[in-house]
Amino acid sequence: MSERTVRYNFDGYTFGDNGDVQLEIYTLKESGYGYTVKFAIELTLKERKQLIKFLKTIDDKDKN
Questions:
Q1: 16 to each of 13, 19, 34, 46, how far by Cα in Å?
Q2: Cβ atoms 34, 59 nearer than 8 A
């Protein structure tokens, strides 16, 4: 798989009055047609913020 090939596709939506989120992750086939696995994770507002903070921390470490 080349570096330009998309390995994952992220999608999702917000629902409810509390800002909960349905995060969907598709793992794509090398050919780019369809997906082999779909993960759907429900996150509360607190969990979503925790995930964002974690990803931001990793990004900051990669920059240094």
A1: 10, 6, 29, 14
A2: no
Spell out the per-residue pLDDT of the chain, length 64, in tens. Answer: 455 677 888 999 999 999 899 999 988 776 666 668 889 999 999 999 999 999 999 988 888 7
Entry pTM: 0.68
Give residue 44's identity as a one-letter amino acid code: T
Closest CA to 52 of 8, 19, 4, 16: 19
- Residue 28, strand partner residues: 35
